[in-house]
């Protein structure tokens, strides 16, 4: 990793091609799950790589390259969502959050993936990012802390809050699907 970062910092074009080839699909997947919009996703990933290109000199710890890149992508996605205020109308596709990890509650285990997807897209962006990093990208608490510039204890707390928020949204979805009134 250190050699790749040094090559990037020297402006080695081949190093940028290698980085792009190794991360582009993962970033597209990650950003799409945050925004739900293919056009926004393409623009955000492109801008992420542009920022990497122009700001690689500011990266102090080469071992944190991937975390740094995911943080850039996450921040850009969050900014886009806040500007557009489209969270409630985002399309939902193939978001797989493991139901067993969300709760011991039998109701949540029986929820289908579509309800979870709908609920996830209604969760506040800061919680959605943590859920995506942990459950989709498989990041540990420490990796999330590094990526989002938080302490590990803060990550634990936010992940707990994120799961609580997701549970509430799932309950709303379940109530609505069963003819209940949206609260």
How many strands, what sense, and barrel or not for the largest sheet? none
Stretches where pLDDT is under 50 for at least 5 consecutive residues are: 86-94, 102-111, 179-183
Structural class: mainly alpha
Strand content: under 5%
- The CATH C-level name of the largest domain is Mainly Alpha
* Bulk shape: globular
Instruction: State the separation between the terminal residues, measured CA to CA.
Output: 49 Å
Question: Can you write the helix and strand succession as a string?
Answer: HHHHHHHHH
CATH superfamily of the largest domain, called what? Winged helix-like DNA-binding domain superfamily/Winged helix DNA-binding domain
Helices, by number, come to: 9
**Percent helix among the residues?**
over 70%
What this model shows, in words?
- 71% of the residues lie in helices and 0% in strands.
- It is an all-alpha fold.
What's the quick description here?
With about 180 residues, the protein is mainly alpha-helical. The chain has helices at about 1-10, 15-35, 40-55, 65-85, 105-110, 115-120, 125-135, 140-150, 150-175.
Task: List the keywords.
mainly alpha, Arc Repressor Mutant, subunit A, Rna Polymerase Sigma Factor, Chain: A, 183 residues, disordered C terminus, 2 domains, single chain
């Amino acid at each position: 990793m250190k050699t790749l970062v040094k090559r990037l910092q020297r402006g080695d074009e081949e190093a940028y091609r290698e980085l792009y080839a190794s991360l582009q699909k993962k970033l597209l997947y990650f950003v799409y799950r945050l925004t739900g919009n293919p056009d926004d996703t393409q623009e955000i990933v492109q801008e992420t790589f542009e920022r990497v290109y122009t700001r690689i000199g500011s990266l102090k710890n080469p071992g944190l390259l991937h975390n740094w890149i995911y943080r850039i992508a996450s921040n850009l996605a969050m900014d886009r969502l806040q500007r557009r205020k489209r969270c409630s109308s985002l399309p939902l596709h193939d978001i797989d959050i493991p139901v067993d990890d969300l709760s011991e509650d039998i109701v949540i285990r029986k929820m289908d993936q579509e309800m979870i997807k709908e609920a996830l897209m209604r969760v506040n962006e800061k919680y959605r990012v943590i859920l995506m990093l942990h459950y989709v990208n498989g990041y540990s608490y420490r990796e999330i802390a590094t990526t989002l510039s938080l302490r590990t204890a803060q990550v634990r707390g936010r992940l707990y809050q994120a799961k609580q928020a997701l549970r509430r949204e799932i309950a709303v979805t379940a109530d609505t699907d069963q003819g209940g009134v949206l609260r």
